[in-house]
Design a protein that fits this description.
Layout: H1 17-31, H2 37-54, H3 56-60, H4 68-82, H5 85-107, H6 111-122, H7 132-163, H8 170-193
Helix pairs in contact: 1-5, 2-5, 4-5, 6-7
Length: 203
Amino acid sequence: MMGGYLARATWLHRLPAGLKLAMIAAISIALLPVQDWRWLALCLALVGAVYVALGREAMRRLGLFKPLLPLLIIIGGLQGLSNRWEDGASVVLRLLVMVLTADLVTMTTTMTALMRAVEPLFRLLRPLGVNSRKIALAVALVLRFIPVLLANWRAREEAWRARSRRRVPLKLVVLFLIETLRLADHVGEALDARGYGRTRRQP
């Protein structure tokens, strides 16, 4: 579960989790109105420079996003065919910047730090009966699981291509979904075994 975390401490590890999450939100909002693909390409180059600054281990993680390429090509192609090729390029570049920026945060922030950063945001919902700690845990798990799931899919895809030159079959996707659900079930059992979420007995 912690496979997405970069164990070697870097300068990005030292930044507060709340600040990094706020930067993700600010960057995402700022990129939405940008339509010039050249500016978006510059942003992607800056994000790539951050990966380079974090070292080889961080750069190797870029391979995890290889399964996203077909989806990005489809999205960009459809956008380009319905409008201009520049629009397709802008959509793809914007998505890449957002995804890679989010990955920078998840690989340099522990789950505990993520939970502490997002939990205050949900405390306002306590009057409605919402458990802010559970919601914070769910958000942290989603952020942490994305690179793990990408790595699992990549392993399955490479194993298939090593055996066959045919396209990845639908049954491989089904098996991946089953494995993902099984993994979620194991995480739930682990949390239950640790007594997470149980009501403490009053002395």
